[in-house]
């Protein structure tokens, strides 16, 4: 059955009835016995379907993999132990020593760290591109560019990249486009449906939604995904545990309703922040003043739950504001029911050299807020009372 979008988050991938169990059972097993030696031989040879060993595949994890494939309009999905395990697996599969990776001007802090590691160990270089125009992209593509790695909206500045444009230019030279879709989730943005090749997720964030799992998911075309499964996933082995897959299956069921609420709450907070005297700038994809508003409208259905903003003052002021918060927790991660705030310059992006960081638009006055599912007026009240501290000296 080809279900409509919201139904896929609840039923996608589930085939067996498992004795009528409504929730997918947790197959907490490392290995699977074969009914005969011949059957074992056939499974190993790939001549017969069937489970062998949980690093290769596990029934609970498999349902989740098919669910992300359905949600992302991909042909196949794969699950990993973390978002970084998923990203590193994809980059390892796509690149070889001496290659080049072209990235957006701003990537998740640990993705940046991974790119440095790849350069150090395998001379795989990377460069950062604004990707605002086709020409800009064409100029930055090198003969050894093996993939484009795109985050959009970019963490934490909320800059948006035109995915159709990037895919068009990359495909002129047969270069695959990888998109880190963590910030939007498939409910707000589906890169594969608009021409990109591979989607990666930190499932830790919106897909889980409850802050109780670290996990990663990948979706893409059959050929690439099978290759990824039979090489990096199997032999490097950064796989997801069955219980984590079960928690993610549970979390994903409510993704559409959660994303609606996150987006609605964020809209309200953006309106308030924009007119607050202590706030210098507000960055939110669906804001009517967002510089790439036209692109946002073309490829995102709503703005999501992440807002970044700059306040009047430097690091000490930012710390004072954060310390004053009561409801909003100071924590990295995002996409949870709880509202979370963090300071990119000293937290998520602290390992990026200051100069590079500032080129990405991350200065000491920037805060990133993951708007939770609480009553938006409580979130605002908390922010407002914390911002008030800036009026007083000391
Ligand atoms: C959190 C995050 C990651 C890393 O995912 P983990 O699950 O923490 O390994 C990658 N990209 C983005 C955009 C993220 O927010």
The number of distinct helices, counting runs of at least 4 residues, comes to 15
Query: What percentage of the residues does DSSP assign to strands (E)?
Result: 5-15%
What compounds are bound to the protein? pyridoxal-5'-phosphate
- Helix proportion range: 40-55%
Globular, elongated, flat, extended or rod-shaped: what is the shape?
globular
Termini separation comes to 63 Å
Secondary-structure element sequence?
HHHEHEHEHEHEHEEHHHEHEHEEHEH
Q: Low-confidence stretches at least 5 residues in length (pLDDT < 50)? A: none
Provide the CATH architecture of the largest domain: 3-Layer(aba) Sandwich
Provide the gyration radius in Å.
22 Å
What does this structure look like?
With 394 residues, the chain is an alpha/beta fold. It folds into two domains: 5-252, 3-Layer(aba) Sandwich (Aspartate Aminotransferase, domain 2); 255-387, Alpha-Beta Complex (Aspartate Aminotransferase, domain 1), CATH 3.90.1150.10. Helix content is 40%, strand content 14%. The chain is built from 15 helices and twelve strands. The chain has helices at residues 5-11, 37-45, 59-71, 83-94, 109-122, 134-140, 163-172, 185-188, 222-236, 242-253, 255-274, 293-299, 315-324, 354-359, 376-387; strands at 76-80, 100-104, 125-129, 145-151, 177-180, 198-202, 216-220, 279-283, 306-311, 329-330, 340-342, 366-370. The strands form two sheets. Strands 1-7-6-5-4-2-3 form a seven-stranded mixed β-sheet, sandwiched between helices. Helix 1 (5-11) packs antiparallel against helix 3, helix 4 packs across helix 9 (222-236) and helix 13 crosses helix 15 (376-387). It is globular and about 80 Å long. The N and C termini lie far apart (63 Å). The mean pLDDT is 96. Pyridoxal-5'-phosphate binds at residues 82-84, 108, 110-111, 151, 155, 180, 182-183, 202, 204-205, 214, 216.
